[in-house]
Design brief:
593 residues; Uridine Diphospho-n-acetylenolpyruvylglucosamine Reductase, domain 3; 3 domains; FAD-bd_PCMH_sub2; L-gulonolactone oxidase activity; five-stranded mixed beta sheet; D-arabinono-1,4-lactone oxidase activity; FAD-linked_Oxidoreductases_BP; FAD binding
């Protein structure tokens, strides 16, 4: 019954043209207005999902500034510096899951804190002769790609989701997938950037630091997490325009752990999506093509399309009902329906003019194939559909865990452990497969201090998040064990812009150049104006003590006592099923079981 109900919903949301989609809500919402410059007072900040990983509370800020030029950025940083105010930066998108953009201690009683929004600082300029594009920090990725393509050039690397700003994606290490050339991380294609940092009175309280590849501070500034100052402008290297050819090949997953490296070596933009409960691995055959190759296709990934609000809220309601009734078989039917729908529509690939998918390969210009996110570009007049996770409409609500493995052999060992865990109870894996399985991508070694120190395999997976942070979840113990297999046993690094708080334990020890980054931070922001309680939780890598009751349910801690789970609802702290050193919240009819 579940599959019969779900498959038509999924197809309805992907095959029909969507009328009246709503744009995402702005991340900053204010009660009062300030001067003519557009500054605001009495505001709150939230991310695009309506909940952070650190907690679920909005971030109150006493003032928000909206600079429109580098001179404006210098002025607002100087004013905050003179007043010794905590400062953070947010774009017009705010898809970061940790609470990195919340200034100060984030409490409503904070005397003063400044949030700088780059939503209006969005210029883009292409230098065709130099094959570069220079973008203001708030420039949308889509605007940068379109400007480059219009000049006969292409941006080689981009994250799969286009609803990000240039400053945000560079500062958090956002990436696509490639072990070729300079690799899949966008920051490794940066050739220059400009930072605005606090200064003393003699220097006007703020200054611009211009950096180029090879400069002493350049590698610290690339993935800086907003801790060094405000990224003002970014210059990215471009290539002559080219096309891409994409096909998806469906295989049994029996040799997946032995095939992934060869796949990445053979195809420039390769990835793999693994559905462990279905014993399937979907190989993306993705290669560069010359401009004269036939095809004008589009990559419009179905998970990033505007979805009818009734569909996304219906899927969420179904999943919540399955959770409440502990119906794991229903989750498995959802997973099967999800894979069937994606296969039918080519995962969102379209032919020329946006025509429906008719078969592989789909060939199109790099700028139309490398990233997607049509729901982020919805006009404000539309009312019937939205991004499926839009928090205003009780749609999809999920965790996103991303683990980065190097050397690659660690990923192979991780896959084998996950297969052993699957063999204990195959149905327990269905909850992740009902979203997008485990997406496997490839990122090349980086010189950035907080980038990847070796060629890396990146695994990203989404799974159900309860509307109430105190509610346990179906098969919760399995995904907590998968997290601990990744981040503890196999030493994976967490993606800076994703993950639950527990994934960041011990993170400093996983970056060989952490001390170099710390030295750069002390040089550029000696007073710690760009620090906050929330960013300290992430980069500090320390588990918050004492642990609160129920802290493991939302990933704020790893349980060590039953009270960190939910004993009143039958969830107790237990060892892992495969990784015995793991500690997970497992359902049991008896505390003694």
């Amino acid at each position: 019954m579940v599959a019969t109900f779900l498959l038509p919903l999924l197809l309805l949301s992907t095959l029909l043209p969507v009328a009246f989609p709503l744009p995402p809500r702005p991340p900053v919402r204010c009660g009062g207005s300030g001067g003519a410059g557009g500054d605001r007072a009495g505001c709150v900040l939230s991310n695009a999902y309506g909940a952070w990983s650190s907690d679920r509370a909005d971030c109150p800020v006493s003032a928000v500034a909206y600079p429109a030029s580098e001179a404006d950025v210098v002025a607002v940083v100087a004013d905050a510096s003179a007043k010794n105010m905590p400062v953070k930066v947010v774009s017009g998108f705010a898809h970061t899951i940790p609470k990195l953009a919340c200034p100060g201690n984030g409490s409503s009683g904070a005397a003063s804190s400044l949030l700088i929004s780059t939503a209006r600082y969005d210029g883009v300029a292409v230098d065709a002769a130099a094959r570069t594009v220079t973008a203001d920090a708030g420039a949308p990725l889509r605007a940068v790609i379109d400007a480059a393509e219009a000049s006969g050039l292409s941006l080689t690397a981009a994250p799969y989701w286009e609803g990000v700003s240039v400053g945000g994606l560079v500062s958090t290490g956002s990436h696509g997938s490639s072990w070729w050339g300079r690799g899949g991380a966008v920051h490794d294609h940066v050739v220059a950037l400009r930072l605005v940092v606090p200064a003393g009175a003699a220097d006007g309280w703020a200054m611009v630091v211009a950096l180029r590849r090879g400069d002493a501070l350049f590698n610290a500034a690339l993935v800086s997490l907003g801790l060094l100052g405000v990224i003002s402008k970014v210059t990215l290297a471009l290539e002559p325009r080219f096309k891409r050819s994409i096909s998806y090949e469906y295989r049994d997953d029996s040799t997946f752990q032995d095939d992934f490296a060869r796949h990445a070596a053979n195809h420039e933009f390769a990835d793999i999506t693994w559905y462990p409960s279905q014993h399937k691995a979907i190989y993306r055959i993705d290669d560069r093509m010359p401009l004269n190759a036939t095809g004008d296709g589009v990559n419009d990934f179905i998970g990033f399309q505007s979805t009818l609000i009734a569909v996304s809220s219906g899927i969420r309601a179904l999943e919540t009902a399955l959770e409440a009734s502990r119906n794991v078989k229903g989750k498995c039917k959802m997973a099967a329906a999800e894979i069937a729908a994606k296969r039918l529509v080519g995962n969102g690939l379209r032919g020329a003019g946006g025509r429906l998918f008719t078969g592989y390969p789909v060939v199109g210009f790099q700028g139309r194939m490398q990233t997607s996110g049509s729901c982020a570009r919805s006009p404000p007049t539309d009312t019937l559909s939205a991004c499926p996770w839009d928090p205003r409409y009780k749609g999809l609500f999920f965790y996103e865990s991303t683990a980065m493995f190097s050397p690659a052999v660690r990923f192979r060992d991780f896959v084998l452990d996950v297969k052993r865990l699957r063999d204990v109870d195959p149905d327990s894996m269905c909850g992740v497969d009902a979203y997008n399985g485990l997406l496997v991508r490839f990122v090349k070694a980086s010189e950035a201090y907080l980038g990847q120190p070796e060629d890396t395999v990146v695994v990203d997976f989404n799974y159900y998040r309860a509307s109430d942070g105190s509610s346990p979840r179906l098969s919760q113990d399995v995904w907590e064990e998968v997290e601990q297999l990744a981040f503890v046993k196999h030493g994976a690094r967490p993606h800076w812009a994703k993950n639950r708080l527990a994934a960041f334990r011990g993170v400093r020890g996983k970056y060989p150049s952490w001390d170099k980054f710390g030295a750069a931070k002390r040089q550029l922001d000696p007073r710690g104006l760009f620090d906050s309680r929330w960013s300290d939780e992430v980069v500090g890598g320390e588990e918050q003590l004492p642990k609160a009751d129920g802290c493991a349910l939302d990933g704020r801690c790893v349980c060590s006592e039953d009270r960190h789970c939910s004993p009143s609802k039958g969830y107790y702290c237990r060892p892992g099923l495969v990784y015995s050193e793991a500690r997970v919240c497992r359902y049991s009819v008896s505390q003694l079981a």
